[in-house]
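Weekly structure sync, notes
Attendees: PL (lead), two postdocs, one rotation student
Agenda item 3: pending single-chain targets
PL asked that the sequence for the first pending target be pasted directly into the notes so everyone works from the same version. It is reproduced below exactly as submitted, 176 residues in total.
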Amino acid sequence: MLFPSENQMPASGRKLYGRVDRVPGIFYVATEFVHGNFIPLIPHRGWVVFHETDDAWDGVEFRFSFKSILIAWVRAALIVAFIGSVMLLFFAYTDKHTSVPWRKARLTAIATTAAYIVTRLPIRGLTRASHRRAYEIAKKVELSPYQLELLNAHFPESGDPTSAVHSESKSPQMLK
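Predicted structure, written out during the meeting:
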């Protein structure tokens, strides 16, 4: 069925997408999007999320993260491209008279799958927060002492790198 009937409504609403700057067990940054059929369309607001369930999340409203918005849209585009490439693959395989070469369709399906997987990997700087970024976020959202203790335990580097940079820049030794 191409169009929904009166009893069927397309899925729409607001949902978190673009989870980036993760610090496992503590928080991550995500963007609340207005979505249509679970495809993120319009960014609504940014969040630092501490806990999420299927239909709700616990967090602090945060400024927009360009990285979060970009990751959400790239992932959505890759999913749409994958679905399109699988359809091409099906037509190329079943219809011998199609102009779509079977190998190109297969390569496109594999490439979009690989690219999507890369956006889901825990890569520091892409989906995982760096030491510095984690502490920048922690300062802005004012984590509890317990959460700060977990943050300190998560990174093998000691202390807050953002305060160390500021104190080093004012150091007389740096002027020599």
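Discussion points:
- The two ends are 74 Å apart (CA to CA).
- The chain has five helices and four strands.
Action: rotation student to compare against the earlier draft before next sync.
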